[in-house]
Amino acid sequence: MKLDSGDAFPELALSGLDDEQVTIPDVFGDGWGVVLVYRGHW
Known about the structure:
Shape: globular
Strand order of the largest sheet: 1-2
Number of strands: 2
Structural class: mainly beta
Order of helices and strands: EE
């Protein structure tokens, strides 16, 4: 999916390093956020 400026980020549930579940964009509230994806080794 391609996002354009002004588009809402789709809801995405992730587990952190401490196994805590976070949901993007809920974790950012009404502010700005940065999503950094590192694929590691496939």
